[in-house]
């Protein structure tokens, strides 16, 4: 269980997160939703130990869990000449000795294979497409075998098939390894498919929390995003969110 208590983040005098308190159980994929600029990335970075913050973060009672957390940033642009395999392997850095063990390479190859990137493993990361690069950085996070996996818009650059592949892979991993997973997402229908727990962030505070059904009602979507939206069930029982119009003035 990840416990975030009274967390705050400020950039200079600009406080962007305040009084953020929530629990996220292991084994239940979590989605973090909310409008642009509301503090989702700041929250993920604070949990990952990459952002100065107030308040406390604990993982099953461990008050300094940063070493057990893997974080995939939103921006994976890279000018590096490292290959996809090398970038993935970097995820094992904490575990690597002076020599790279065969098992580290195999673990890295396996994850790249899972994402259909076997034929790209020796290609420089700078020569990959945006979606391929996003999957390589996800592979890097996965090979760390973290206890907490934080993903910032992990499907933003992916086509329909790879969106499902990546999210289903991460959700399965969350349940099988009983780890904590929190992904910031803008596609609410995808988020509803992926997540068992959802946190709605508005203006730097938690404004809704619970199951996707509870968080993604027309009223709470109007509060969060200032849009009107239809929330329905598909014939297979999944939640579908269709924004239908703007509500309220642009701020
Ligand atoms: N390094 C920084 N220095 C100063 N202000 C920052 C910095 N990073 C973010 N901010 C500000 O903090 C606020 C929250 O930004 P953050 O990136 O956390 O939002 P977000 O919810 O992830 O947005 P998006 O959905 O657009 O990615 C914004 O107003 C942003 O301008």
From TrEMBL:
Keywords: ATP-binding, Nucleotide-binding. The keyword DNA-binding does not apply. SMART domains: AAA. One of its GO terms (molecular function) is ATP binding. Residues 2-228 form the ABC transporter domain. InterPro entries: AAA+_ATPase (IPR003593), ABC_transporter-like_ATP-bd (IPR003439), P-loop_NTPase (IPR027417). CDD domains: ABC_Iron-Siderophores_B12_Hemin (cd03214). It holds the Pfam family ABC_tran. It comes from the Bacteria. SUPFAM superfamilies: P-loop containing nucleoside triphosphate hydrolases (SSF52540). This is ABC transporter ATP-binding protein.
């Amino acid at each position: 269980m990840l416990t975030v208590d009274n967390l705050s983040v400020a950039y200079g005098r600009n406080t962007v997160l305040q009084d953020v308190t929530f629990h996220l159980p292991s084994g239940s994929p979590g989605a973090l939703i909310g409008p642009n600029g509301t503090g989702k990335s700041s929250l993920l970075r604070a949990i990952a130990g990459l952002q100065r913050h107030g308040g406390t973060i604990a993982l099953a009672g461990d008050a300094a869990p940063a070493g057990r957390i893997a974080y995939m940033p939103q921006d994976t642009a890279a000018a590096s000449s490292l290959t996809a395999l090398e970038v993935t392997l970097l995820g094992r850095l904490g575990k690597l000795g002076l020599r790279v063990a065969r098992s580290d390479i195999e673990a890295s190859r396996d994850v790249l294979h899972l994402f259909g990137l076997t034929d790209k493993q020796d290609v420089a990361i700078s020569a990959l497409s945006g979606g391929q690069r996003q999957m390589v950085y996800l592979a890097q996070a996965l090979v760390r075998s973290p206890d907490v996996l934080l993903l910032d818009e992990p499907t933003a650059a992916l086509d329909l098939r790879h969106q499902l592949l990546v999210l289903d892979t991460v959700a399965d991993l969350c349940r099988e390894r009983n780890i904590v997973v929190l992904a910031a997402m803008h596609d609410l229908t995808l988020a509803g498919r992926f997540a068992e727990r959802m946190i709605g962030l508005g203006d730097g505070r938690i404004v809704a929390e619970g199951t996707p059904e509870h968080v993604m009602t027309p009223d709470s979507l109007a509060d969060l995003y200032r849009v009107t939206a239809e929330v329905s069930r598909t014939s297979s029982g999944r939640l579908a969110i269709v924004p239908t119009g703007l509500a309220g003035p642009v701020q």
